[in-house]
Amino acid sequence: MKLIAFLRKNSFVLLLIAVFVLSDVLLSLWDPMVTSRRFYKNDFTKTLYHHDWVDHGPVFFGNSAVTGAYIEDQSQSKLVEMGLSYGKLTDLKPILERQLYHVDRELVIGIDVHTMIDSLDTDPTYQWFKPWYQPYVYTYRDYFRDSGAELGCQLYQGFLIQDALKLQACTRFPETVELSKTNPLAYQPRWIDKELYFGQQTDDQLKTKWAEYDQRFGWMTLKDFQGNLDALDWVLAYAKEHNLQVRVIWMPWNKAYELPRYMPALQQAVNDRLAKYNVPVLDLLQGFDKKYFHDLVHLSRQEGAPVFTKEVDAWLLSLAKSSK
User: Which SUPFAM superfamilies does its entry note (predicted)?
Assistant: First the structure.
């Protein structure tokens, strides 16, 4: 009886909670952060989008250094370029663990000077960061707010007679489409391509960036990479269990500038782990001249990326021949 009385007394509140929960479940099933171009897309979603949503294949995983350096459509290796903005080994582990992507046969991992830094912030919208219990609308609240504001501005402007009366806040969306009678929910699709790196930064820009990197990361020791070293151990064990061929590439650093102080110890720690699993390693860390770089860590798309892609292809081909 007490339970019935409680339900009657709080029926309205309970109904609101039930409506919210049901709405959030339906929203998560729709998953507009992935399926709708109205919303921002992270690099993992962009990878799927550009491969017609196919979620399996041989993979070249890494951060933006991989995105900038590996030209997939010019490569003979046919690896899926899965460079993620600020991607780390602690991202690769949940991708494999949760089966968000099924790697076929070959897993190439590109490691640059930032790939193993535990404290380096990454994109919070990656699918593996959302706890199962956290409401969908809360997890992506900033992006719902952004797209909702755009829609509100579009509708507001569409009903105004004089342009001078437009909301000042709507200047945030200069490319907002005009309100259409046939399609009032039309929108400006969000950018769906990954960031590439063209041209070359000046020496002054590179010196400033080096000083910034050194201040932020130069003092680090192996304990600052432990989370990613543990993730590497997990990935190597997973690959062995699932018969995946793992290859590791040390991604190029602009050798006109001093290598980060932590790199020798970190590279040794990683290579020791790779040696235990007989993982082939291609060390290009200081293998490219300054002329091939856009900045300190990203190869120029015109100069550096084609050379890098050919070198990776030749290396992988030589490994394939030697294994026969």
Answer: SGNH hydrolase
Please give the residue that has the higher pLDDT: either 283 or 2: 283
Pairing mode of beta strands 80-83, 56-62: parallel
CA distance 200 to 234: 37
Lowest-confidence range among 99-113, 118-132, 280-294, 301-315? 118-132
- Does domain 43-117+193-322 fall under CATH 3.30.1330.40? My reply is no
Percentage of the chain exceeding pLDDT 90 = 67
- What is the rounded CA–CA span in Å between residue 248 and residue 271? 9
For 190-256, the DSSP string reads PP-SPP---S---HHHHHHHHHHHHHHHTT--GGGGHHHHHHHHHHHHHHHHTT-EEEEEE----TT
- Joined tokens for residue 4: 């019935």
Side-chain half-sphere of 9: how many Cα atoms within 13 Å? 6
**CA 242 to the chain's CA centroid:** 24
Domain assignments of the chain as residue spans, ordered by start: 2-30, 43-117+193-322, 137-188
What does the angle CA 51 – CA 70 – CA 81 come to, to the nearest 5 degrees? 25
Burial class (CB within 10 angstroms; exposed 0-12, middle 13-18, buried 19+) of 227: middle
The predicted model scores a pTM of 0.87
Summarize pLDDT for 134-146 with one digit per residue, the tens.
888 878 877 777 7
What is the rounded CA–CA span in Å between residue 288 and residue 200? 14
pLDDT at position 165, please?
Answer: 42
Number of H helices, E strands in the chain: 12, 5
- Residues 232 and 270: beta-carbon distance below 8 Å: yes
Give every CB contact of residue 70 below 8 A, 6+ residues apart in sequence: 60, 79, 81, 83, 110, 305, 308, 309, 312
Per the listing, tokens 């007394």 go with 9
What would the DSSP string read from start to end of 68-96? HH--GGG-SS--EEEE-TT--HHHHHHHH
